[in-house]
Amino acid sequence: MVVRIRLALHGRRNLPYYHIVVSNARQARNSKPLEKIGTYDPIPNSEGNKLINLNFERTKYWLTVGAQPSEIVEKLLVKANLVPEKPKAWQQVAAKAFST
Questions:
Q1: Is the pTM here over 0.85, yes or no?
Q2: Distance (Å, whole) CA 50 – CA 30
Q3: Number of separate helices (H) and strands (E) present in the chain
Q4: Which DSSP string corresponds to 44-64?
Q5: Whole-angstrom distance, CA of residue 72 vs CA of residue 42
Q6: pLDDT per 10-residue tile (average), the chain, 100 residues
Q7: Measured between alpha carbons, how far apart are the two ends of the chain, in Å?
Q8: Residues facing 4 on adjacent strands
Q9: CB 38 within 8 A of CB 55
Q10: Which of 18, 31, 32, 97 could form a disulfide with 40 if both were Cys (CB 3.0 to 4.6 A apart)?
């Protein structure tokens, strides 16, 4: 069973609000998750901050068990310093070009 950490859409049109959930990879986006580990509000507040609420202990647990984060969740986890940033494809090509 492949487990993914991904976003489940809530809210309404033009005002999205996401729950960060752990679910089976073959289930639909908004189906019942195994666990809800946080929330993400992509709309900046009055101070210009996007709000992320994340349970670090449960996130670390699911990552150590082998759950794979989606691309967007991985970016959020990099900002939270839970996972290291993967090198981008253009960085690998540039490293090969300069090494020879």
A1: no
A2: 22
A3: 3, 5
A4: --TTSPPEEEE-HHHHHHHHH
A5: 11
A6: 91 93 90 93 93 94 94 92 81 78
A7: 42
A8: 23, 68
A9: yes
A10: 18
